[in-house]
Design a protein that fits this description.
- This protein is of the alpha+beta class.
- Among the domains are: 35-92, Ubiquitin Ligase Nedd4, Chain: W, CATH 2.20.70; 104-136, no CATH class.
- It is 33% helix and 20% strand.
- The chain has a three-stranded antiparallel sheet, with no helix packed on it.
- A hairpin with a 4-residue loop joins strand 4 and strand 5.
Length: 153
């Protein structure tokens, strides 16, 4: 049986991805680029990597803490902008008490003491947050329209 070279060349060009006479296009692999806009914005602000940060904790109003065990920090101090990258874990304050005590200031230690008292009494952390918001709002003056915040004392 003779082999037709044109048919042989046509068969060699054909791939295994043919379905019903039409070629199936390979799907494009989309890389996750969620942070590209953030990276560009930090680049415009000339943010630099902050060294020596081992962990970061963000205290939420509901009594939970966003805990970054391994964190990358970039900062542009001139623009008061900092970016924390990593994988946060949501934990209770009570889970992190031994590690976060050096990070807490005097006012936070008072809130922590009140939290401990309320947990022993059976109240929720939301009650504590309401008390902290009421106590903390006294020293911040309200800004009046047309008035500069530097002028308010």
């Amino acid at each position: 049986m003779p082999v037709d070279p044109e048919k042989l060349a046509k068969l060699q060009k054909a791939t295994a991805k043919k379905v019903g006479g039409s070629r199936v296009k390979a799907k494009k692999v989309v890389k996750e680029q969620d942070d590209t806009k953030l990276i560009e914005a930090l680049g415009k602000l000339k943010a630099t990597k902050v060294e020596g940060v081992e962990e970061a904790n963000f205290f939420r109003e509901d009594g939970k803490v966003l805990h970054f065990n391994r964190v990358g920090v970039q900062g542009a101090a001139a623009h008061n902008t900092f970016a924390f990258t990593g994988y946060p874990q949501e934990k209770n304050v009570t889970d992190l008490i031994p590690q976060i005590l050096p990070q807490l200031g005097a006012e936070n230690l008072e809130i922590l003491r009140q939290l401990a008292e309320q947990l022993q009494a059976g109240k929720t952390p939301a009650d504590l947050q309401a008390q902290a918001a009421a106590a903390g709002g006294e020293d911040i003056p309200d800004l009046i329209e047309g008035q500069n915040f530097d002028d308010v004392e």
